Hints:
By secondary structure, the chain is of the alpha/beta class. 44% of the residues lie in helices and 19% in strands.
Amino acid sequence: MIVGSWQNIEFTSRIIYVNNIESADIKEVMDMISKINYYDQLNIDNDKKYKPEPIKLMINTFGGEVYEAFALIDLINKSITPIHTYGIGSVMSSGLPILLAGKRRFAYKLCTFMYHEVDTTYEGKTRGHTEEVSEMKRIMVIFDKLITSKSKLQQKQLDQIKTTKKDWYFTSKEAKALGIIEAIV
Length: 185
């Protein structure tokens, strides 16, 4: 809960939920992370011994807009407050690289993960399709690097999954073995 202006912020909770990865929803998540960072920076400036408590980012999503996921990932990576990510329910599609952005990563036992190629619903003329395919390829490279840089998954494995043109579902236990999470809670 936020009380008063940014100069008088108080937090009764550092738990933030990520469900829909769409502009309005991600903006709310990013606003809360920014306010907590502001609060923690004020405290660090006033007391060098102050150590911010981590933000718990609870992720339960079927995925959503990749650009919105990238914005949240950048904010997580620049946060002065440590952000721990938790998979609960489902961590699918663009939710997977968000979870991987956490300083520490966990999942609940029954959480289901899913990876697949980015997709589009682009409609229009041929030139537009050509540009869209080019952009999708660029985004897919970034998406895959976010995954391979923070897990034991190799690009070769991800490429193999993409050749099947299917969604790849896996459990929390498999996510732990792949280095996606450090523990099941």
